[in-house]
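# step 3/5: fold
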Amino acid sequence: MALTGLDIYKKLPKTNCGECGIPTCLAFAMALAGKKTSLDKCPYVSDEAKVLLESASAPPIQLVTIGTGEQRLEIGNETVMYRHEQTFYHPTGLAVEIPDNLSADEIKKKAQEIDKLIFDRVGQKVRVELIAVRDLSNKPETFANAVKIISETTPLALVLVSFNPASIEAALKICADKKPLIYAANQENHQAMTELAKKHTCPLGVLGKNLDELADLTAKISAAGIKNLVIDPGTADLNARLNDITQIRKLALRKTFRPLGFPVITFTPENMPAEEEPIYASVFIAKYTGIMVLKGSVPWQVLPLVTIRLNVYTDPQKPIQIESKIYEIGNVTNTSPVLVTTNFSLTYFTVEPEVEGSKVPSYVVVVNTEGMSVLTAYAADKLNEKIIAKALNEFKVQDKVNHKKLIIPGYLSALSGKLEAETGWEIMVGPREASAIPSYLKNIWGKVSQAVA
């Protein structure tokens, strides 16, 4: 049962020292009850109180790390049901299955294909993070050999999918240092799987036939000392699984029900048509899967999933931004045009291909508007004559060209007079829509450039 702020306050030292960053112990207690701070911020809390307050200070959904180094994936530790309440923090990890009963060459080829599933989305590199090795052979030696080939082919983190403790043990002899996720402990094998997870300090997947059995299993495994768990309610039907996962999230966040306070793993159903896999997976990326395991590895199946993941896990209060600086598109010279836009990623990556497509090498001055688009930034006074003038000076744009002609977005036409007075540059009003940039640069700038040259 979750403790109230007053319950927590009674256990605190009541020094009001402020060393935790919060002025009073009562305010700290309220923040702790609301999961907005952690107990370790209080330097004077007693050991006895730490034990009593563990449930209040622990995250409602356990943070679980799979893999090591640059390839590690963190999932869980979410605090809200809906991202508009605050935000979602740890994006769903995408995994692709490789069965162990393929030939060595087929396994290696498949691993190489998965390793190359990297996409550029609005300036960010997004990719598949895990490979799930499935034990279809039920032979420890075959399973371990498949894991060995994959480990030598790609640095991606692993999910070891087998209900046979002997197979898991054989695989861990090869890859335990990569801290793979062991999947899965169930009613029949949970004691052996728990021992393996404890011995090799690896996260453990837990599979139940329903939520009651799942909660019972996680309670037993947690009592044995394993806290890094990833859970699976066992349902495959889309509607039933969505209901189960939503119930898990509600119980963890709103009731602080510890036995289900773990991230979830979901597998696409067996024999699902390739074109349906992305549809099924997209539902659980939105709600509320920590790891989504796919059968298919074709780019057209994965691209929509990394895109929806990026959309869901982008903080709505912090739009995706690019670095504010001057960008060179094409083989620019001192007679190239200079355009202005904002550092909202979607705006820039709409403008860039149009400029590139015009075949007119250009400078693009990207102004820091805190990730706002042109009209939004203008309305919020984040894109005005002083801010643009500051960017021109900061990036030393005048040193790049032998002219002082600046092309601004058509939506900023009302700003042209003030901008010209502020900067001393001649302001040219460009098109409102990025799609018209090629025509503008070829025709309007084309005539001006002759005079510039």
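# step 4/5: annotate
The chain has three domains: 5-57, 64-312, 326-452.
# step 5/5: archive (pending)
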